Amino acid sequence: MIYTLTLNPAIDYYMSIENFQLGSLNLLEEGYTLPGGKGINVSKVLKNFSVESKALGFVGGFTGDYIKKHLKEYEIESDFIELQENTRINIKLKTKDFETEIAGKSPNISQEDVQELLKKFEKIGKDDVIILSGSVPNSISKSIYADIIKLLPKDCKVILDTRGLPFVEGLKEGVFLTKPNNHELEEFFNRKLNNIEEIIQAGKDLQALGSKNVLISLGKDGSILITEKEVYIGNAPQGKLISSVGAGDSMVAGVVYGIAKGMTLEDSYKYGIASGSSTAFSEGLTTFEGMNSLLNKIEIKKY
């Protein structure tokens, strides 16, 4: 079974305005809402690829009901813990020049809620895949991902996609795969990475700290996969950027799709590249057809 965890989900309100005028009345050219959260995005892309997963996390209030209803309509199984406060609302504003995000305030999560969540991971099997992704609300300990990993069987495949202290603590427990971008690597190691050699070395440094494999996104410059034995460089297929929101989550979902189909991580890599790129070229998350249409444009070489 594949499980995705979203500790800090949201309703994402997407807005498009050609020119945003600060301090003035602005009229939307387009606006729509979608359930957001990195784990939820992964579950949705997997569903688009006909791969089942179970979404875990916390939801509350009318916004939480919206997320649960949406996933039910999407036929995605969920097992959320109910909170008293409302799930947050995020703003994602796109103009002709910039993409701007405003993160909403997270609801309070009690220690009892956390313990209820941890119990769900005591039943995970060694053949399951767990995607731990996204930010950690301030009311939860930054060691939450590490606490979860400690409960899992040793051979369970854990994918960790977060940043800051939750990433540091989770990494210490050992994971199957991490997916930083080059900027997050610079932030983590507190140093500038000036070329591909330095980026690869930083990825290998992550391996030494507990990540068995490392997938590094470089945006329009492609990506790098560092396995236990090899380093692979993948291109970024050409296309018109519509929105980068969810592209990283789609990349994770593409890799998990390959794993679910019994492929090696190296073979799964191309599905990750195609999925992330297809989302970047789309309104919303990639479809299977969108991902599949890019596969023949993917070039992966050993470094």
Automatic annotation (TrEMBL):
The keyword Kinase applies. The keyword DNA-binding does not apply. Gene3D superfamilies: 3.40.1190.20. GO terms for cellular component: cytosol. InterPro entries: 1-PFruKinase, Carboh/pur_kinase_PfkB_CS, PfkB_dom, Ribokinase-like, Tagatose/fructose_Pkinase. Signal peptide: none annotated. Keywords: ATP-binding, Kinase, Nucleotide-binding, Transferase. Its EC number is 2.7.1.56. One of its GO terms (biological process) is small molecule metabolic process. Pfam families: PfkB. Coiled coil: none annotated. GO terms for molecular function: 1-phosphofructokinase activity; ATP binding. Residues 11-287 form the Carbohydrate kinase PfkB domain. It is an enzyme of class 2 (transferase). It catalyses: beta-D-fructose 1-phosphate + ATP = beta-D-fructose 1,6-bisphosphate + ADP + H(+). Catalyzes the ATP-dependent phosphorylation of fructose-l-phosphate to fructose-l,6-bisphosphate. Belongs to the carbohydrate kinase PfkB family. This is 1-phosphofructokinase. It comes from Fusobacterium necrogenes. The lineage of its organism: Bacteria, Fusobacteriati, Fusobacteriota, Fusobacteriia, Fusobacteriales.
